[in-house]
Design a protein that fits this description.
The radius of gyration is 22 Å and the shape is globular. It contains 22 helices and no strands. It is mainly α and about 425 residues long. About 75% of the residues lie in helices and about 0% in strands. The protein has one domain.
């Protein structure tokens, strides 16, 4: 009797504990253990799933290493050099600082793989510059910073793509390379939108930089600019795995900050380590909860039930992708990325595979979709971070963000129904 109601009670308990304010990772662990008790299963299964998941997946080690590299980039002032480089390249375009914001996010994304790190680091600096002396409306400055930051987890390296590779048994290398063209499309389209907005609203351009200053600016920015090339070149040449690439990125950032630029002392390094450990602990807790929770979902044959549901409605590939995108756009308004990726996504992977959808393409679409959720009210975590760091009222940013959300949704549709935009580069590289 108890076994028959264990699953619904587990789901109710998960919802109640989450609404009550319990961290998602702990809520998943508590509700899953409660299920094991009610279903009469061995309690040791919980520990087994966590240990196998966290220590049996070598690729999971990439997550804390990429977090460490991003924290070094911010603390070591390396992002300042990238900002000056971007200012020299695109500062004279209409909406100069907004264009710098977009380009800097692309460059920084090649090092961190995290939208939050982008916003908290170089995004904070740029937003403050944009609102100084009322050069840009506060809401617009916050909105473009949040929107440009979503490039981070789409352009390689990408922490969400590492998560997806964990749950789908796909190639991290293919996922990384598959995100390149979608990320560049975001940058180009956002740049055009900002250019039009600048013309209509009279946004300023930046003062020209003397031509003789360019060589020094480029030289100072060249070492951090080389990191994406080193990472991708190493991965696709076979010199190291994606996980080893994360270690290389952390070491490279550390060498730049400590020895090349001498901008990271012992105290700052200690703060970086503490911040990395705290963030990693949160991620590890969510992963641990997801491994137990997904075991329960598998035991209860939920993915098969989802597939049977779609099959009963004669679901086509197009209908399935539209439905998944709509569902994720709604979920992204209320749930964080890790929860959606680790709890919801495994339910749809078997159906996507059965419909003949390339799982690498599906993964990039899912990540792209979830990045839109980072800037979509009412959750919009990036908007909350900007409010906390800079003090821009949420209402002002929300009024400006809808244009960018609309543009990204259109791009999502293009990426969803044009798989070659994702798969072309991996094929050229001989990975598919």
């Amino acid at each position: 009797m108890l076994a028959s109601v264990a699953l619904p009670i587990m789901i109710i308990l998960l919802i109640v504990t989450t609404v009550a304010g319990m961290p998602m990772g702990i809520a998943m662990i508590v509700s899953s253990i409660f299920y094991l008790l009610m279903a009469g299963r061995d309690m040791g299964l919980a520990s087994e799933q966590v240990l196998n998941g966290l220590f049996g997946n070598f690729v999971a080690l990439a997550v804390p290493l990429f977090i460490f590299a991003a924290n070094i980039m911010n603390a070591g002032k390396i992002s300042d050099r990238l900002l000056k480089f971007a200012l020299a390249v695109v500062g004279r375009m209409p909406g100069g600082l907004a264009q710098v914001n977009i380009l800097t996010s692309l460059i920084f994304s090649g090092m961190s793989g995290s939208a939050v790190s982008d916003v908290a680091g170089v995004g904070k600096i740029l937003t403050t510059m944009m609102i100084k002396d009322n050069r840009y409306p506060r809401g617009f400055a916050g909105a473009i910073t949040a929107t440009s930051s979503v490039v981070g987890p789409i352009f390689p390296p990408s922490i969400p793509m590492v998560f997806y590779a964990l749950i789908s048994s796909t190639s991290v290398g293919v996922l990384f390379l598959g995100g390149v063209i979608p990320a560049l499309l975001i940058v180009v389209v956002l740049s055009i939108v900002v250019m039009i907005a600048a013309k209509v609203r009279g946004f300023p351009v930046e003062a020209p930089i003397a031509l003789r200053a360019f060589p020094l600016i480029i030289l100072r920015a060249l070492p951090p600019l080389m990191m994406p090339a080193i990472l991708l070149g190493g991965i696709y040449s076979g010199a190291f795995t994606p996980t080893e690439a994360a270690a290389v990125s952390a070491l490279y950032a550390l060498i730049l900050a400590v020895f090349a630029y001498r901008s990271l002392g012992l105290r700052e390094f200690f703060d970086v380590v503490v911040a990395t450990v705290r963030t990693t602990a949160v991620v590890a807790m969510v992963l641990a909860g997801a491994f137990i929770f997904n075991y329960v979902i598998t035991v209860e044959n939920i993915p098969q039930a989802v597939f049977a549901f779609f099959d009963s409605y004669e679901m086509t590939t197009v209908k399935f992708l539209i439905m998944v995108n709509l569902l994720y756009l709604v979920l992204g308004c209320f749930l964080d990325v890790s929860t959606i990726m680790l709890v919801i996504t495994p339910l749809f992977i078997p159906t996507a595979a059965a419909l003949g959808i390339d799982l690498h393409h599906f993964g990039v679409v899912i990540v792209f979709n979830m990045m839109i959720g980072l800037i979509t009210p009412p959750y919009g975590i990036l908007l909350f971070i900007i409010k906390a760091l800079i003090g821009i009222p949420l209402g002002e940013m929300i009024r400006e963000i809808w244009l960018f959300v609309g543009v990204l949704i259109v791009l999502l549709g293009v990426i969803t129904f044009t798989p070659e935009l994702v798969l072309w580069l991996p094929r050229v590289a001989g990975l598919l």
